[in-house]
Amino acid sequence: QVQLAESGGGSVQAGGSLRLSCAAFGFRYSSYCMGWFRQAPGKEREGVATIHTGNYGTYYSDSVKGRFTISRDTAKNTLYLQMNSLKPEDTAMYYCAADRTWTSTCSTEREYNYWGQGTQVTVSS
């Protein structure tokens, strides 16, 4: 059973940086899609970034491209999201997600069966 645990959220002023971490446990296969999603109050969940654990291909939403970087440390089984140049509109609960994949790309629109509990990011102006 895959388990995910996020950490690293907090409060920061606009223009600042945060790094989110997601410790992953229970991976049994070689290829998973892993991603970061966020949800602000009153808004739909938004896919932020994804990474393929087999080929390390990445995807970013237009709203974070050039500011956020997704990465994975295989030895530590940990997923990261480095967030720079943060904006107040980045304020949301951020979730780590994962699912086994048989494809070479990872969309934010695909189904993810494993989710973490979330970590809050608040950016003040």
Fold and architecture overview:
- This protein is mainly beta and 125 residues long.
- The chain contains no helices and eleven strands.
- It has strands at residues 3-7, 10-13, 18-25, 32-39, 46-52, 58-60, 68-73, 78-83, 92-100, 114-115, 119-124.
- The strands form two sheets. Strands 2, 4, 5, 6, 9, 10 and 11 form a seven-stranded mixed sheet that branches.
- A hairpin with a 6-residue loop joins strand 4 (32-39) and strand 5.
- It is globular.
N to C succession of SSEs? EEEEEEEEEEE
Taken as a percent bin, the fraction of beta residues is over 45%
> Roughly how many Å is the radius of gyration?
14 Å
Main beta sheet: 7 strands, mixed
Unreliable spans are none
Determine the structural class based on helices, strands and strand pairing: mainly beta
Large-scale geometry: globular
Q: Using DSSP, what is the number of strands?
A: 11
In which range does the helix fraction lie? Answer: under 10%
